[in-house]
Amino acid sequence: MTSTTAVRAAAPADTSVHIVRSDAEALEIVTRLAAEFRKGAQARDQNRILPADEIGELTRNGIFGVAVPKDFGGAGVSARTIADIFRILSDADPSIGQIPQNHFCWLPLFSNGTPEQEAFFYGRILAGDRIGNAHSEDTRKRPGDYEHQLTRVPGGWRITGRKYYSTGAIFAQWIPFIGQDEQNNQLMFFVDASSDGVTVVDDWRGMGQRTTASGTTIFDDVFVPDANVFPFASDKPGNRGRMLLASLIHAAIDQGIAEATLADARHYILNHNRPWIDNPYDEHAKEPFVIKEFGELAVTIRTAGLSLRHAADLVDIAHSTRTENDVLEARLAIADARLNCGAAATKVADEFFLLTGARATLDKYGLDRHWRNARTHSLHDPFRWKLYHLGNYHLNGVVPGPRTYI
């Protein structure tokens, strides 16, 4: 697809989708696929080629279905496994890593619906359907203050509006957005991407994460039946911990970027750098200052990785116990991981150039994509507010509110 392509909808789900049965199988599959995806990451970034084939491979191999609950035929994999999936994918190509984020984030909402809704939508996911995203808008209003028009009609709703940051929508069969009913209750509307009036435009022009297709989705008097509408919040036991995955996945994407950057920096230093004039050794990699700084970057990444795994384990505990305290502990740990992994990605992507030289900036190496990806993705939500809420909690005992994005 070219950079200005408008499409009506993604292709129908593949009918030959593998169903993953365990965490171990999910990780084996994604590790194998990521090794192949890595080979084309630089070219896709430099030419803004959307990873349609790669998303198709993930789908056919069942990765989009691994979080479907076991009661509905899925593997119901752990949060630790989901974090590892996104870390591994983002190590290979963080655009591919980011595209399924909303799919995994919104999929648990099906459990807020009726048993019939759950069975239908979880079944569609196992059959290969993908969930996109289209709830943010390109305005100067606060997130959540929408300009879309939402009208109640017999049997459902009609929507008209223009959404942005629609990551994954161009590959999706279901494009969700958030709205409110007549009583101001938040609802999630899952729009069939093949509906009349739906247009997805690949007009994302970010300097990094270039091939996430996080562009525009246009709804022109689109009908959404009641069967495709879910409560955004629910009194069901699992609802309290369902939104923990969103920020955890973003931390995993940052961690993947950091790990890929360090690996590429190592390869460049060992294979392309020449020693500086004052270096007493014949190899650049033996320069004491390079060794020291590389070690510091490695420690930063390893520490961030430990933070990510700790947060994922607490998410699994929160999903199991569903207690208010365990959910809070998971939220705090996720905020820690998001800060640590984001800082690792931006630090390593910037500072490793100081260990190389001007030649490392040449297009043929494509190393600049790591900095652009890290900086772009780290701006998804402001770290300064995470630090504020964490500081206010640890200093003043103020628990971040349920809608606080930490």
UniProtKB/TrEMBL annotation:
GO MF entries: acyl-CoA dehydrogenase activity; flavin adenine dinucleotide binding; oxidoreductase activity, acting on paired donors, with incorporation or reduction of molecular oxygen, reduced flavin or flavoprotein as one donor, and incorporation of one atom of oxygen
Is the Transmembrane helix keyword given for this protein? no
In terms of Gene3D superfamilies, this protein maps to: Acyl-CoA dehydrogenase/oxidase, N-terminal domain, Butyryl-CoA Dehydrogenase, subunit A, domain 2, Butyryl-CoA Dehydrogenase, subunit A, domain 3
Q: Where is the Acyl-CoA dehydrogenase/oxidase N-terminal domain?
A: 34-129
What is any one of the record's Gene Ontology cellular component terms?
cytoplasm
One Gene Ontology biological process: fatty acid beta-oxidation using acyl-CoA dehydrogenase
Q: Which family does it belong to?
A: Belongs to the HpaH/HsaA monooxygenase family.
- Tell me the protein's name: SfnB family sulfur acquisition oxidoreductase
Species of origin reads: Aquamicrobium lusatiense
